[in-house]
Design brief:
Helix content is 50%, strand content 9%. The strands form two sheets. It has a five-stranded mixed β-sheet, sandwiched between helices. The protein has a two-stranded antiparallel ribbon with strand order 4-7. The longest helix has 28 residues. This is Integrase core domain-containing protein. It holds the Pfam family rva_4. It comes from Clytia hemisphaerica. InterPro entries: Integrase_dom_put (IPR058913).
Length: 390
């Protein structure tokens, strides 16, 4: 990515001028002055003060309220307008518009603050928290994710047909290890056989400590515990429900109540996964980006810094700490790949994929790009397969 594209993408992620300059130095090893940065943004017609008309902003909010943004608060909605719709507006304007456009949603989001336990973590990649999310599982969609304990950055967030297969969970883990060429000092997970391969691979990578002060090498590098101890990712699951998953839960419940879906029937579940899996993954990708680029507010007694997860994770020196990543060699990753496997494409067997693709071609249908198109595909598949018109 060249300099200008990097700056434009960073601007649309809501980074401040100071954060953009720091990211340029960190990622591209480029030093720019504030004056140069502002000139580049001005040349690309980008400015902090919104110049979008009210109609565009209202239309974008209404579009989000009809989709998976229906449960977002005004801060998250403001961030989504920037990331997805490239609209610059103020949080206050979004808050006032939501009061008018979605008064019931605003009222339902009001809640009391809870007293939270103090969380201790030294820096990025000191602790990763992994877990599965099962709220969509009754409909055939199993989610798995990982959160960095210090920065609260969501490292991966994937959906498939299962989050209980140790080989598939290990693949999610190894894909990220391969991406950053390293692993965390420690990984925390719930008790369960689905985490057994990750535990073995992590302990293999951390077999020998790199320094005498490392008390978390070998067996101590993977920690099993109750879900209440895995608080970082449990807290994120709560946030994900409002950012994405509740929309899909409501949609599939409505289809079930209308007699359009029987979640106990394998054919219905395969048709649903084939039709909606891509859209659900895109929704999770959007939710992950939204979370990683939002600004975490300070709160009393916090041990980890406030700020944007991407920045906290990527530029730890700005927060007086270091990256605790433990480097992993490519040949070690290759050895570990032996205990992984690829998840099923769209969560369906090869035989069902061939059948569904044949029906799509016969009916002149394309891969769905929105919920309405996915419903048409789903209804077509179920009708053709159930009636035997193949």
């Amino acid at each position: 990515m060249n300099r200008n594209n990097f700056i434009i993408n960073s601007f649309h992620q809501g980074l401040s001028y100071k954060e953009i300059l720091a990211c340029l130095l960190k990622s591209l090893n480029l030093v720019l002055s504030l004056r140069q940065l502002k000139r580049i943004l001005r040349d690309n017609n980008l400015r902090r003060r919104g110049n979008n008309n009210q109609v565009a902003i209202v239309n974008a909010i209404q579009s989000e309220l009809r989709g998976d943004g229906c449960n977002l608060g005004y801060r998250s909605m403001h961030q989504k307008l920037i990331l997805r719709h490239r609209l610059n507006t103020s949080r206050e304007q979004v808050r006032l518009l939501l009061l008018h456009l979605d008064p019931e949603g605003v009222e339902s989001r009001k809640r009391r603050r809870l007293r939270r336990r103090t969380y201790h973590c030294r820096g990025p990649n000191d602790v990763w928290h992994i877990d599965g999310y099962d709220k969509l599982k009754p409909y055939g969609f199993a989610v798995h994710g990982c959160v960095d304990g210090y920065s609260r950055k969501v490292l991966w967030l994937t959906v498939g047909s299962t989050n209980n297969d140790p080989e598939i969970i290990a693949k999610h883990y190894l894909d990220y290890v391969s991406e950053i060429k390293g692993t965390a000092r420690r990984i925390r997970a719930d008790c369960g056989t689905e985490n057994s391969n990750v535990a073995g691979v992590q302990r293999f990578f951390r077999l020998h400590a790199e320094d005498e002060d490392d008390n978390f090498s070998g067996l101590e590098s993977f920690l099993y515990g109750k879900s209440t101890s895995n608080q970082r990712i449990e807290a994120y699951w709560s946030r994900l429900r409002g950012a994405a998953s509740q929309f899909w839960i409501n949609l599939f419940k409505d289809m079930r109540d209308a007699g359009e879906l029987d979640e106990t029937d394998d054919i219905y579940r395969d048709c649903l996964r084939f039709s909606f899996m891509g859209l659900v993954q895109q929704s999770l990708d959007d939710a992950r980006l939204l979370h990683n680029t939002h600004r975490i507010r300070p709160y009393p007694l916090q041990e980890c810094p406030n700020g944007k997860p991407n920045i906290i994770y990527g530029i730890p020196e700005a927060y007086d700490t270091v990256d605790y990543k433990v480097e992993v060699e490519e040949d070690e990753i290759g050895i570990a790949r032996e205990v992984t496997k690829e998840p099923l494409e769209l969560g369906c067997s090869v035989e069902f994929l061939e059948l569904a693709n044949f029906i799509m071609e016969e009916e002149g249908l394309q891969a769905p790009e929105n919920v309405d198109e996915a419903k048409i595909l789903y209804f077509t598949l179920t009708a053709v397969i159930r009636n035997g018109h193949i």
